[in-house]
Design brief:
With 254 residues, the protein is α+β, with helices and mostly antiparallel strands. The protein has helices at 10-30, 236-247; strands at 39-45, 51-54, 64-70, 147-151, 157-161, 166-171, 174-179, 185-193, 199-200, 210-216, 223-231. The chain contains 2 helices and 11 strands. A hairpin with a 5-residue loop joins strand 4 (147-151) and strand 5.
């Protein structure tokens, strides 16, 4: 059994303590105590109980025994859980994490209220031309204008108003006069112009148009004025009456 070191007086204890402290300081100066692992090495005299600190167990001498202890004592028992501390300040927002996998489709919600009408959009491009439609029914005949003008001595025509007739000179002083516009029947009348001659050929049939022969009384080529008034009747008497009235519009000579 190791011997216990007994200090018989405070003065002796003070002296020994000073010596022990001096030896410890001297040992610290010459070696690393504790070592790199945090272990303290010592040599204990089994006869007188003296203890000295060394840098390694190999420094112990007879009758010393090497002992070691840790600079840090063994961990004590776990203490009781402390009270919860106050919440710390909110830290800065961390970086956004990766997008997680797509979740399952949820149940369809109820239909929301109808929104306000939006602004009118821009006009779209013109579409392609559609197919041509069917031909509509023919409309009623419009009003016809009376035809007036001159037959020149060579058979050409100088129209003044209305549709121009077709005139052909077939012989000296003889002309074929034809006029036909749409569904109207033009009743022609003829008068001499600048000459002492008469003209025959007033009136004519009315079947889709009027065609009559005009002749001068002297058998010579002359200027002849014409007036053709449209009518819807084919009666010969009506044509004659219209021709007689129309003849009064041109003088016999000039």
């Amino acid at each position: 059994m190791p011997r216990k070191l007994r200090l018989r007086s405070p003065a002796l204890a003070t002296v020994l303590g000073g010596l022990f402290l001096t030896a410890a300081i001297s040992g610290v100066a010459s070696a690393q105590i504790p070592d790199s692992s945090g272990t303290i090495h010592g040599c204990y005299n089994v006869h007188n109980g003296n203890l000295r600190v060394v840098s390694n167990p190999g420094e112990c001498r007879h009758p010393e025994a090497a002992i070691t202890w840790s600079q840090q004592g063994p961990a004590g028992p776990k203490g009781d859980k402390g009270d919860t501390g106050p919440a710390g300040p909110t830290g800065p927002q961390g970086p956004q994490g990766d997008t997680g996998p797509k979740g399952d489709t949820g149940a369809q919600g109820p239909v929301g209220p109808q929104g306000d009408k939006g602004d009118t959009g821009d006009t779209g491009p013109t579409g392609p031309q559609g197919p041509q439609g069917d031909t509509g029914p023919q409309g009623p005949a419009g009003p016809q204008q009376a035809a007036t003008g001159f037959i020149n001595p060579d058979g050409t025509v100088s129209p003044i108003s209305g549709p121009a007739p077709t005139v052909t000179r077939t012989a000296a002083g003889v002309y074929t006069f034809t006029i036909n516009i749409a569904n109207a029947c033009f009743v022609p009348s003829f008068n001499p112009w600048a000459g002492s001659f008469t003209v025959s050929g007033n009136g004519g049939g009315c079947s889709g148009g009027v065609s009559t022969t005009v002749a001068t009384s002297d058998g010579q080529d002359h200027f002849i004025s014409y007036l053709a008034v449209p009518t819807l009747t084919s009666s010969a008497s009506a044509l004659a009456q219209r021709s007689a009235r129309a003849a009064n519009r041109f003088p016999a000579s000039r």
